[in-house]
Amino acid sequence: MTVDLTTTIQRAGETAAAARVLRNGGLVAFPTETVYGLGADAANAEAIARLYRAKGRPAFNPLIVHVGDVAAAQHIARFGAAALALADAFWPGPLTLVLPKGANCPVADLATAGLDTIALRVPAHPVARDILRGFGGAIVAPSANLSGHVSPTTAAHVRHDLDGRIDLIVDGGPVDVGIESTIVGCFDRPALLRPGGISRADIERVLGSPLASPAPGAADGPPLASGMLASHYAPRARMRLNAANLAPGEALLAFGRVDLPGIDTASAVMNLSESGDLKEAAAHLFGCLRALDASGARTIAVTPIPEDGLGEAINDRLRRAAAPKG
Ligand code: TXA
Ligand code: MG
């Protein structure tokens, strides 16, 4: 009882502090169910400019706007039938919808990088929801890491990347999903812009039709989603995917029970999920990449991961982590 009460009071105090910092144009890192986000007041262009600077994020890469419920989202963007069906099925939760901006959209233009569309999400994490309620407005929140680096799944990861660059970190423990939200563009035909915490199959079941892929030409303009930036989610170490053996000195990131030739010479070994569970693997992915990086490994070899369910998002992040930097 006592412990519960203390925790509740503590959380109320931190929520109030977070709302105060946001109101004053400050930057607050807080947990969502997917990854930790770095929040700023979505209506405050100066705060958003600070946010881009703190992350070292290019200003052509737009932000996700977080709100408390569908009604708040409808003040910001225009919802068609498909968008409403998806919001109804998956909010609050790890889904982001890209929609046409509404007529009186209160979000600062800087957050959308000059696009006439806007990305919206209703997070499910109780701390995120408390902060949204306490603040009372929309909050832009990219993942709370330095731009291009691995997304944070604990408050310690946030501290490692952003300590001294932001005003407050609210620690809600390790996150649940571990991989960012799925981004669906609700255009003529709904398109998968970034695989994430909700699988393609679950979304297609609600839509009753297959998701489109973004037009290939889209890569020439501003990126539709940072899923489209070749190098992203990147550790320092080189990554070698679909490894069937291990070279001397390589670190191993395994999935399922594996026994590779050369495993006895591994500099470090971590397993995303020994039982081969993709949900568990998603939750462990970014933490394992950070830990293997911190072990000083020059190369991280990764065993194959099936492409179904959350495997699509895991493989997407691994490919971006492996892409040449710069
Ligand atoms: O799970 C998540 O989505 C986390 C948590 C904190 O909510 N946030 C997150 O934000 O992953 P970030 O900034 O790391 O990724 C946002 C993605 C970027 O790839 C950006 O390009 C895309 O959303 N995006 C934002 N607005 C867009 C728009 N109007 N059209 C297309 N893509 C957009
Ligand atoms: Mg990010």
Give a short synopsis of this structure:
The protein is an alpha/beta fold.
List the helices and strands and how they pair.
Layout: H1 2-23, E1 28-31, E2 36-41, H2 45-55, E3 64-66, H3 70-74, H4 81-90, E4 95-100, E5 117-121, H5 126-135, E6 139-140, H6 155-162, E7 168-169, E8 182-185, E9 191-194, H7 200-207, E10 238-240, E11 251-254, E12 269-271, H8 278-294, E13 299-302, H9 311-322
Helix pairs in contact: 1-5
Bound molecules: threonylcarbamoyladenylate (TXA) and magnesium ion.
GO molecular function, one term: tRNA binding
Protein name: Threonylcarbamoyl-AMP synthase
Family: Belongs to the SUA5 family.
What labels describe this entry?
binds threonylcarbamoyladenylate; globular; alpha/beta; 9 helices; 13 strands; 326 residues; nine-stranded mixed beta sheet; 2 domains; Rossmann fold; four-stranded parallel beta sheet; binds magnesium ion; 32% helix; DHBP synthase
